[in-house]
Write a structure and sequence with these properties.
single chain, 294 residues, 2 domains
Amino acid sequence: MNVHDPDTIALYAAGQLTADEAAAVESHLTDCADCQDELAFWRELGAEINTSSAALPPPPDLAERALKQIHAPSPLQRAWRQSAALLRSQFVLVRREMWAAAAAFMVLVVIMALLSDHTGFLTGLAPMLAAATLAAIYGPQNDPASELALATPTSPWKILLARLSIVSAYNLVLSLAASLALLAIIPADLLGSIVLAWLGPLAFLSALALLLSLWIGTANAITICYAAWLLHYIQPSEIFGAWAPSLQVWDAFLTVYRQFWESPILLLGLSAAVVALALVSSNFPEQVINQRRA
Protein backbone atom coordinates (compact mmCIF):
# COMPACT_ATOMS: atom_id res chain seq x y z
CA MET A 1 0.00 0.00 0.00
CA ASN A 2 1.31 3.42 -1.00
CA VAL A 3 0.26 5.80 1.78
CA HIS A 4 1.02 8.80 -0.43
CA ASP A 5 -1.37 7.61 -3.17
CA PRO A 6 -4.56 9.80 -3.54
CA ASP A 7 -6.63 6.63 -3.86
CA THR A 8 -5.36 5.49 -0.47
CA ILE A 9 -6.32 8.83 1.08
CA ALA A 10 -9.79 8.53 -0.47
CA LEU A 11 -10.22 5.05 1.00
CA TYR A 12 -9.03 6.32 4.36
CA ALA A 13 -11.58 9.17 4.28
CA ALA A 14 -14.30 6.64 3.48
CA GLY A 15 -13.23 4.33 6.32
CA GLN A 16 -12.41 1.47 3.96
CA LEU A 17 -8.88 0.66 5.30
CA THR A 18 -7.91 -1.88 7.89
CA ALA A 19 -6.72 -0.69 11.27
CA ASP A 20 -3.04 -1.22 10.41
CA GLU A 21 -3.42 0.57 7.06
CA ALA A 22 -5.29 3.45 8.68
CA ALA A 23 -2.54 3.80 11.32
CA ALA A 24 0.11 3.96 8.60
CA VAL A 25 -1.82 6.68 6.76
CA GLU A 26 -2.31 8.70 9.96
CA SER A 27 1.41 8.51 10.66
CA HIS A 28 2.13 9.73 7.14
CA LEU A 29 -0.38 12.57 7.38
CA THR A 30 1.47 14.22 10.25
CA ASP A 31 4.38 15.05 7.96
CA CYS A 32 2.72 15.38 4.48
CA ALA A 33 0.89 18.62 3.69
CA ASP A 34 -0.22 17.38 0.25
CA CYS A 35 -1.98 14.37 1.70
CA GLN A 36 -3.54 16.56 4.40
CA ASP A 37 -5.06 18.73 1.63
CA GLU A 38 -6.20 15.59 -0.19
CA LEU A 39 -7.87 14.29 2.95
CA ALA A 40 -9.57 17.64 3.56
CA PHE A 41 -10.96 17.56 0.01
CA TRP A 42 -12.43 14.08 0.38
CA ARG A 43 -13.93 14.87 3.79
CA GLU A 44 -15.56 18.03 2.43
CA LEU A 45 -16.92 16.13 -0.54
CA GLY A 46 -18.27 13.41 1.72
CA ALA A 47 -19.98 16.00 3.93
CA GLU A 48 -21.71 17.55 0.89
CA ILE A 49 -22.90 14.15 -0.31
CA ASN A 50 -24.31 13.32 3.11
CA THR A 51 -26.06 16.68 3.26
CA SER A 52 -27.61 16.19 -0.20
CA SER A 53 -28.73 12.67 0.67
CA ALA A 54 -30.35 13.87 3.89
CA ALA A 55 -32.21 16.62 2.01
CA LEU A 56 -33.67 14.11 -0.48
CA PRO A 57 -34.65 11.00 1.46
CA PRO A 58 -35.54 8.00 -0.73
CA PRO A 59 -39.20 6.85 -0.85
CA PRO A 60 -39.95 4.21 1.77
CA ASP A 61 -41.05 1.70 -0.92
CA LEU A 62 -38.09 2.33 -3.21
CA ALA A 63 -36.72 -1.21 -2.92
CA GLU A 64 -40.11 -2.83 -3.45
CA ARG A 65 -40.81 -0.67 -6.48
CA ALA A 66 -37.40 -1.43 -7.93
CA LEU A 67 -37.92 -5.18 -7.53
CA LYS A 68 -41.40 -4.94 -9.01
CA GLN A 69 -40.03 -3.09 -12.02
CA ILE A 70 -37.25 -5.64 -12.47
CA HIS A 71 -39.66 -8.59 -12.39
CA ALA A 72 -42.46 -6.89 -14.36
CA PRO A 73 -43.34 -8.69 -17.63
CA SER A 74 -42.28 -7.16 -20.91
CA PRO A 75 -44.87 -5.44 -23.14
CA LEU A 76 -44.92 -8.51 -25.39
CA GLN A 77 -45.56 -10.80 -22.41
CA ARG A 78 -48.36 -8.54 -21.16
CA ALA A 79 -49.95 -8.49 -24.61
CA TRP A 80 -49.76 -12.30 -24.82
CA ARG A 81 -51.33 -12.75 -21.38
CA GLN A 82 -54.11 -10.29 -22.13
CA SER A 83 -54.83 -11.98 -25.45
CA ALA A 84 -54.92 -15.43 -23.84
CA ALA A 85 -57.27 -14.17 -21.11
CA LEU A 86 -59.59 -12.62 -23.71
CA LEU A 87 -59.67 -15.82 -25.77
CA ARG A 88 -60.52 -17.88 -22.68
CA SER A 89 -63.30 -15.52 -21.66
CA GLN A 90 -64.84 -15.49 -25.15
CA PHE A 91 -64.55 -19.24 -25.67
CA VAL A 92 -67.25 -19.91 -23.07
CA LEU A 93 -69.57 -17.33 -24.67
CA VAL A 94 -69.64 -19.01 -28.07
CA ARG A 95 -72.66 -21.28 -28.43
CA ARG A 96 -71.70 -24.60 -26.88
CA GLU A 97 -73.82 -26.68 -29.22
CA MET A 98 -71.89 -25.32 -32.20
CA TRP A 99 -68.73 -27.31 -31.42
CA ALA A 100 -70.39 -30.73 -31.44
CA ALA A 101 -72.74 -29.87 -34.32
CA ALA A 102 -69.89 -28.70 -36.54
CA ALA A 103 -67.81 -31.78 -35.77
CA ALA A 104 -70.77 -34.11 -36.42
CA PHE A 105 -71.52 -32.36 -39.71
CA MET A 106 -67.91 -32.69 -40.85
CA VAL A 107 -67.89 -36.40 -39.96
CA LEU A 108 -71.00 -36.83 -42.09
CA VAL A 109 -69.29 -34.99 -44.96
CA VAL A 110 -66.29 -37.32 -44.76
CA ILE A 111 -68.52 -40.39 -44.72
CA MET A 112 -70.40 -39.20 -47.80
CA ALA A 113 -67.12 -38.46 -49.58
CA LEU A 114 -65.68 -41.87 -48.75
CA LEU A 115 -68.83 -43.75 -49.76
CA SER A 116 -69.20 -41.85 -53.02
CA ASP A 117 -65.47 -41.74 -53.73
CA HIS A 118 -65.90 -38.03 -54.49
CA THR A 119 -64.04 -35.16 -52.79
CA GLY A 120 -66.60 -32.59 -53.93
CA PHE A 121 -68.59 -33.11 -50.75
CA LEU A 122 -65.77 -31.66 -48.70
CA THR A 123 -64.86 -28.80 -51.03
CA GLY A 124 -68.52 -27.87 -51.40
CA LEU A 125 -69.80 -28.23 -47.84
CA ALA A 126 -66.82 -27.09 -45.73
CA PRO A 127 -67.24 -23.42 -46.77
CA MET A 128 -70.97 -23.60 -46.00
CA LEU A 129 -70.29 -24.96 -42.53
CA ALA A 130 -67.75 -22.21 -41.85
CA ALA A 131 -70.17 -19.53 -43.04
CA ALA A 132 -72.93 -20.78 -40.76
CA THR A 133 -70.70 -20.87 -37.69
CA LEU A 134 -69.14 -17.44 -38.30
CA ALA A 135 -72.55 -15.85 -38.85
CA ALA A 136 -73.65 -16.99 -35.39
CA ILE A 137 -70.83 -15.81 -33.13
CA TYR A 138 -71.69 -12.18 -32.45
CA GLY A 139 -74.57 -9.77 -32.02
CA PRO A 140 -77.75 -9.57 -29.92
CA GLN A 141 -79.29 -12.52 -31.81
CA ASN A 142 -76.46 -14.84 -30.82
CA ASP A 143 -75.30 -13.40 -27.51
CA PRO A 144 -77.97 -12.61 -24.88
CA ALA A 145 -75.33 -10.77 -22.86
CA SER A 146 -74.10 -8.68 -25.79
CA GLU A 147 -75.17 -5.38 -24.21
CA LEU A 148 -73.37 -6.34 -21.01
CA ALA A 149 -70.26 -7.26 -23.02
CA LEU A 150 -70.34 -3.88 -24.75
CA ALA A 151 -70.38 -2.19 -21.34
CA THR A 152 -67.01 -3.70 -20.42
CA PRO A 153 -63.71 -1.86 -21.03
CA THR A 154 -62.86 -4.34 -23.81
CA SER A 155 -63.55 -2.89 -27.25
CA PRO A 156 -66.25 -4.64 -29.32
CA TRP A 157 -63.82 -5.27 -32.17
CA LYS A 158 -61.48 -7.11 -29.80
CA ILE A 159 -64.34 -9.31 -28.60
CA LEU A 160 -65.33 -10.04 -32.19
CA LEU A 161 -61.73 -10.74 -33.19
CA ALA A 162 -61.31 -13.17 -30.28
CA ARG A 163 -64.44 -15.12 -31.23
CA LEU A 164 -63.51 -15.01 -34.91
CA SER A 165 -60.08 -16.45 -34.12
CA ILE A 166 -61.49 -19.25 -31.98
CA VAL A 167 -64.20 -20.39 -34.38
CA SER A 168 -62.08 -19.94 -37.52
CA ALA A 169 -59.29 -22.03 -36.00
CA TYR A 170 -61.83 -24.73 -35.12
CA ASN A 171 -63.26 -24.76 -38.65
CA LEU A 172 -59.76 -24.90 -40.10
CA VAL A 173 -58.82 -27.86 -37.92
CA LEU A 174 -62.02 -29.72 -38.84
CA SER A 175 -61.47 -29.15 -42.56
CA LEU A 176 -57.83 -30.19 -42.40
CA ALA A 177 -58.75 -33.35 -40.47
CA ALA A 178 -61.41 -34.14 -43.05
CA SER A 179 -58.89 -33.62 -45.85
CA LEU A 180 -56.48 -36.04 -44.21
CA ALA A 181 -59.29 -38.58 -43.89
CA LEU A 182 -59.83 -38.39 -47.65
CA LEU A 183 -56.34 -39.80 -48.19
CA ALA A 184 -58.14 -43.14 -48.15
CA ILE A 185 -59.57 -42.34 -51.60
CA ILE A 186 -57.08 -39.84 -53.09
CA PRO A 187 -53.30 -39.99 -53.68
CA ALA A 188 -51.22 -38.15 -51.09
CA ASP A 189 -49.84 -35.75 -53.70
CA LEU A 190 -53.36 -34.40 -54.30
CA LEU A 191 -53.87 -33.38 -50.68
CA GLY A 192 -52.56 -29.87 -51.33
CA SER A 193 -54.99 -29.40 -54.22
CA ILE A 194 -57.91 -30.50 -52.06
CA VAL A 195 -56.94 -28.05 -49.31
CA LEU A 196 -56.60 -25.17 -51.78
CA ALA A 197 -59.99 -26.07 -53.26
CA TRP A 198 -61.78 -25.32 -49.98
CA LEU A 199 -59.39 -22.92 -48.22
CA GLY A 200 -60.07 -19.80 -50.28
CA PRO A 201 -63.86 -20.24 -50.49
CA LEU A 202 -64.05 -21.14 -46.80
CA ALA A 203 -62.18 -17.99 -45.79
CA PHE A 204 -64.13 -15.60 -48.01
CA LEU A 205 -67.59 -17.10 -47.52
CA SER A 206 -67.22 -17.20 -43.73
CA ALA A 207 -65.84 -13.64 -43.64
CA LEU A 208 -68.75 -12.45 -45.78
CA ALA A 209 -71.23 -14.27 -43.52
CA LEU A 210 -69.73 -12.60 -40.47
CA LEU A 211 -69.94 -9.13 -42.01
CA LEU A 212 -73.51 -9.60 -43.24
CA SER A 213 -74.62 -10.98 -39.88
CA LEU A 214 -73.57 -7.69 -38.29
CA TRP A 215 -75.48 -5.72 -40.91
CA ILE A 216 -78.66 -7.69 -41.62
CA GLY A 217 -78.81 -10.54 -39.09
CA THR A 218 -77.66 -14.13 -38.95
CA ALA A 219 -80.44 -15.81 -40.94
CA ASN A 220 -80.26 -13.31 -43.80
CA ALA A 221 -76.46 -13.54 -43.88
CA ILE A 222 -76.51 -17.33 -44.16
CA THR A 223 -79.19 -17.24 -46.87
CA ILE A 224 -77.25 -14.76 -49.02
CA CYS A 225 -73.93 -16.56 -48.58
CA TYR A 226 -75.40 -19.95 -49.40
CA ALA A 227 -77.06 -18.55 -52.51
CA ALA A 228 -73.80 -16.90 -53.61
CA TRP A 229 -71.89 -20.15 -53.08
CA LEU A 230 -74.41 -22.48 -54.74
CA LEU A 231 -74.74 -20.18 -57.74
CA HIS A 232 -71.38 -21.24 -59.14
CA TYR A 233 -72.57 -24.87 -59.30
CA ILE A 234 -75.36 -24.01 -61.76
CA GLN A 235 -75.00 -25.56 -65.21
CA PRO A 236 -77.33 -23.80 -67.70
CA SER A 237 -77.19 -26.70 -70.15
CA GLU A 238 -78.53 -29.13 -67.54
CA ILE A 239 -81.27 -26.78 -66.36
CA PHE A 240 -82.52 -25.21 -69.57
CA GLY A 241 -81.63 -27.97 -72.02
CA ALA A 242 -82.32 -26.91 -75.59
CA TRP A 243 -82.62 -23.26 -74.60
CA ALA A 244 -79.12 -23.14 -73.10
CA PRO A 245 -77.41 -21.78 -76.27
CA SER A 246 -79.61 -18.68 -76.05
CA LEU A 247 -78.20 -17.96 -72.58
CA GLN A 248 -74.62 -17.33 -73.66
CA VAL A 249 -74.32 -14.15 -71.58
CA TRP A 250 -75.46 -16.01 -68.48
CA ASP A 251 -73.09 -18.86 -69.25
CA ALA A 252 -70.17 -16.43 -69.71
CA PHE A 253 -71.00 -14.81 -66.39
CA LEU A 254 -71.03 -18.16 -64.61
CA THR A 255 -67.66 -19.03 -66.15
CA VAL A 256 -66.08 -15.88 -64.71
CA TYR A 257 -67.94 -16.43 -61.46
CA ARG A 258 -66.54 -19.94 -61.09
CA GLN A 259 -63.04 -18.64 -61.78
CA PHE A 260 -63.53 -16.20 -58.95
CA TRP A 261 -64.26 -18.99 -56.47
CA GLU A 262 -61.31 -20.99 -57.81
CA SER A 263 -58.77 -18.22 -57.08
CA PRO A 264 -57.51 -18.90 -53.53
CA ILE A 265 -55.05 -15.97 -53.39
CA LEU A 266 -57.75 -13.49 -54.46
CA LEU A 267 -60.25 -14.97 -52.04
CA LEU A 268 -57.82 -14.85 -49.11
CA GLY A 269 -56.98 -11.22 -49.84
CA LEU A 270 -60.66 -10.27 -50.05
CA SER A 271 -61.30 -12.20 -46.84
CA ALA A 272 -58.81 -10.03 -44.95
CA ALA A 273 -60.50 -6.88 -46.26
CA VAL A 274 -63.98 -8.14 -45.35
CA VAL A 275 -62.87 -9.14 -41.86
CA ALA A 276 -61.35 -5.68 -41.34
CA LEU A 277 -64.67 -4.12 -42.37
CA ALA A 278 -66.51 -6.43 -39.98
CA LEU A 279 -64.27 -5.39 -37.10
CA VAL A 280 -64.97 -1.74 -37.86
CA SER A 281 -68.70 -2.46 -38.11
CA SER A 282 -68.69 -4.12 -34.69
CA ASN A 283 -68.27 -0.68 -33.10
CA PHE A 284 -71.65 0.52 -34.35
CA PRO A 285 -73.70 -1.21 -31.60
CA GLU A 286 -71.49 0.44 -28.98
CA GLN A 287 -72.32 3.86 -30.43
CA VAL A 288 -76.04 3.08 -30.33
CA ILE A 289 -75.86 2.03 -26.66
CA ASN A 290 -73.95 5.16 -25.76
CA GLN A 291 -76.62 7.27 -27.46
CA ARG A 292 -79.31 5.52 -25.45
CA ARG A 293 -77.47 6.23 -22.21
CA ALA A 294 -77.14 9.90 -23.13
